[in-house]
Amino acid sequence: MPRGYMEGPAAEEAERRAEEAARAKDEPPAPEVHSAVYGCTEDDPDPHFLGWLGEVDPEELFATGAAWGVTVRRVAVAG
């Protein structure tokens, strides 16, 4: 007997996708996130931005003594 409607897992999946699509239209796009290197230097002993991961090497900064308290943080970047 043919059915004129969906039921079960297929219907649930279709409903979930429809809800996600509706939600995506209403929400602003997620900000882009990059890894930033922060640490302390002689010039500025408070933790501050040193550069982007990939452009500066946090291990090298620490090993050479150029910076200490070095951390890598995920930072939202305005497009």
Lay out the secondary structure.
Layout: H1 9-26, E1 32-40, E2 48-52, H2 58-64, E3 68-77
Antiparallel strand pairs: 1-2, 1-3
Give the rounded overall mean pLDDT.
85
- Strand order, sheet with most strands: 2-1-3
Strand-and-helix sequence, N→C? HEEHE
Could you tell me how far the N terminus lies from the C terminus, measured between alpha carbons in angstroms? 54 Å
Helix content: 25-40%
Indicate the low-confidence ranges by residue numbers: none
Strand content: 25-35%
Which overall shape is indicated by the principal axes computed on the Cα atoms? Answer: elongated
Classify the secondary structure makeup into a structural class: alpha+beta
Please state the CA-atom Rg, rounded to the nearest Å.
24 Å
The largest sheet, given as strand count, sense and whether it forms a barrel, is:
3 strands, antiparallel
Structure annotation, total helices: 2
Number of strands: 3
